[in-house]
Amino acid sequence: MVALQPLNLKNWKVLPLAPCAWPSTSPVLSRCSCGNGTVKMQKSSSSKNRRKSSYGTSRRSILKKSFNQEQVTFTSPLSDDPNVAIIGGGIAGIICAIFLDKRGVRSTLFDTGIHGLGGRMGTRVIDPHPLIFDHAAQFFTVNDSRFAELFNAWMDKGLVLEWKGTIGELHSGGNFVPFLPSPPKYIATNGMRFLADSLLSETRMVNVVRPCWISKLEPFNGMWHLSENGKPCGKFDAIVIAHNGKCANRLLMTSGLPLIAKQMKRLELSSIWALLAAFEDPLPFPGSTEVPFEGAFVRGIDSVSWMANNTKKLLTSQNGSPHCWTFLSTAAYGKQNKVPQENIPTATAAKVNDGMLEGIEAALGLSKGSLPKPFYTRLQLWGAALPTNTPGIPCIFDPFGRAGICGDWLLGSNIEAAVLSGMALANHIADYFQSPEIDRAEFAVGLNQEFQPLEGHDIGQFPGLESEIKMNEDQAYELAK
C-alpha cells in the first residue's frame, strides 16, 4: 500500500484546456463568453442529415466523443451556500459526503441501489431462514493511520468487528494452509451493507436520493444541472463521480469534461462472478466432517478464487443454521464468460453455476459428484468488479469544470483505498470553495497522471497481508516438490 502524503498541489502539472475539436457536422459546445459560466449547445445546419448514432455503442466511439469535447469553464462565483452532487453511493462516495459535511459543505448523494447504499459493499439477506451473504467485499485490513482513526470510531459504535475465524489458502486437492492471526481482518457487524447504510446517520448536510440513475450532466448559468432520463434532479456548484465502468463513461461522454473523461477511460476493470449458495449441512473436507476454515483464497482452480462461510462469519451465535457460502470466480474465468450483467443468458448462468460448483469440489479435494447440493443458489456478475490499473493518487479534480473523481481504483482495490480517496476529494473541494482568491489552476489534480498496472488478488488488495501470502506460497511450493 502506498503511504499517502498531504496533497502538494504545486507539484502537479496542469494540462491546458482542450480546444474544441468537434467536426463541423456534429453538435458543438461554444466557448463561454457571457461571463457567468454558461455553456450553450449549437448545431450546424448540416447536422439534420446526419444519422443519429447509438448511445455509447463502442469503447472507440466513446473515446472519440470524450476527447473531442469542449472544456466547460465556470467563471461565475460560487453560490453563497454551495452544494455538491455526488454520483455513486459506494464507500468512496459516502465518505466524500461525510467529510464535506464535516467541512460545512452541503451535498446530495445519488445512488442506484434499491436495497441500500454501499455499491460493492453489498449484503444480500434472504428471509425467512435467514440466509445472509456478503456478495462482493469480503473483509478489510487497516494500514493507514487516517483510516485507522475513522475505523476506531466505527469500532466504538459497534459497526465493525474483527473476523477471528480461520482464514488461509486452499490449494487444489484440499491442501489448506491457514494464515497467522496478524494482521487483523475486519468485517461489518451485520454485513457490509449494514456499515454503508449506517455511516450517514449523524450527518446534518447530506441528502440521499435513491434509487436514482443520473443519466445527464449539463452546465448552465454557472451550475451543473443533473437529470434522470429527462427528469430534473437539481442544480449543483460541483459534481463528484464516485462510480466507474461503462455507466460513468457514458455519463461523461458529452459532459464537457474531456480531461476527467480521459482519465476515467484509462481505467481497466475485471469481471468476477459471485455464486451465493446455501447448504443444509457443513461442507465436507477430506478426513473431516467439516472444512477447517471460514474463508480461503483458492489456488489452482480456474473457476474459483475465494470462498467464505457467511453464516459463521456473521451469525456466530446461531448454531444449526443453514451454511451460507459466497464463492467468487477468478478474473480470468469472469473474462472467459463475460456477458451483459443486466441480461445474463440462461445457458451462461447454468454453465457458470456448474463450473464454479465443480471447481469448489476440486478445491476441497472431494470426489466428483460428492459435493452436497445447495438448496439455494443465486448467481451475480460483477461486470466492473475491480481495477487492474491505477494512477496511484487519492483523487482527481478539474477546477475549471468544478468536477472530481474518487474511488478505490485511484489508489488500489480495497475499502481502505476507497475511504482515503473519498476523504481526500472532500477536503480538496472544501479547500477550493474556501479559497476564492487563489488561481484555480492550483487546484488541478491528477488530470494527466499516468496509470500503472495494479497487483493483488482477484478479489482485491489487503494491506499487511502480503507477507503471509508470500510465506504460504513458499510453503506450498516446498510441499509440491
Automatic annotation (TrEMBL):
Residues 39-59 are annotated as: Disordered. It comes from the Eukaryota. InterPro entries: FAD/NAD-bd_sf. Transmembrane segments: none annotated. Pfam families: NAD_binding_8. Coiled coil: none annotated. This is Uncharacterized protein LOC113861635 isoform X1. It comes from Abrus precatorius (Indian licorice). The lineage of its organism: Eukaryota, Viridiplantae, Streptophyta, Embryophyta, Tracheophyta.
